[in-house]
């Protein structure tokens, strides 16, 4: 099937130890969800759930029915396993304790 006025986009998904970026051509009226499905990434990574996972274009959150432009990169975001604020707080606390311990030596 030949596309009329095709645009080139990328679909990106990252795991802690792996990152995949798929490039594909889609019709210029293609929506985010359609592009994700056409990319085949859902077959490779069945843990992706578009009903709950967030998506964005170049780091800016968007809806699945958002329009695409040439050279857009759709990003599929995983759920956070740790709260970033809490992680930073714990790290700062550990560094503070280490600094106090080093001073006492």
Topology, element by element:
Elements: E1 6-15, E2 18-27, H1 32-39, H2 41-44, E3 55-57, E4 60-62, E5 73-76, H3 84-104
Parallel strand pairs: 1-5
Antiparallel strand pairs: 1-2, 3-4, 3-5
General description of the model:
- It contains 3 helices and 5 strands, in the order E-E-H-H-E-E-E-H.
- A hairpin with a 2-residue loop joins strand 1 (6-15) and strand 2 (18-27).
- It has a 5-stranded mixed beta sheet with strand order 2-1-5-3-4, covered by helices on one side.
- It has helices at residues 32-39, 41-44, 84-104, and strands at residues 6-15, 18-27, 55-57, 60-62, 73-76.
- By secondary structure, the protein is an alpha+beta fold.
- The termini are far apart.
- The protein has one domain: Ubiquitin-like (UB roll).
- Helix content is 31%, strand content 29%.
What are the salient characteristics of this protein?
105 residues; alpha+beta; Ubiquitin-like (UB roll); 5-stranded mixed sheet; 3 helices; elongated
User: Largest sheet, order of strands side by side?
Assistant: 2-1-5-3-4
Number of strands: 5
CATH superfamily label = RnfH-like
Instruction: Please describe the biggest sheet, giving its number of strands, its sense, and whether it closes into a barrel.
Output: 5 strands, mixed
Form type: elongated
| Structural class determined from secondary elements | alpha+beta
Radius of gyration: 20 Å
Report low-confidence residues grouped into runs of 5 or more: none
Strand content: 25-35%
Oligomer: single chain
Helical stretch tally: 3
Helix content: 25-40%
N-to-C CA distance: 73 Å
According to CATH, what is the topology? Ubiquitin-like (UB roll)
What is the CATH C level class, in words?
Alpha Beta
Order of helices and strands: EEHHEEEH
């Amino acid at each position: 099937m030949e596309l009329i006025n095709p645009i080139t986009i990328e679909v990106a998904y990252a795991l802690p130890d792996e990152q995949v970026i798929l490039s594909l051509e889609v019709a210029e009226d293609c929506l985010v969800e359609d592009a994700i499905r056409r990319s085949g990434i859902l077959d490779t990574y069945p843990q992706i759930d578009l009903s709950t996972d967030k998506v964005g274009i170049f780091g800016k959150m968007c809806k699945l029915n958002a329009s695409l432009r040439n050279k857009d990169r759709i990003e599929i975001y995983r759920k956070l396993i740790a709260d970033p604020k809490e992680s930073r707080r714990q790290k700062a606390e550990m560094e503070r304790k280490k600094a106090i311990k080093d001073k006492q030596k």
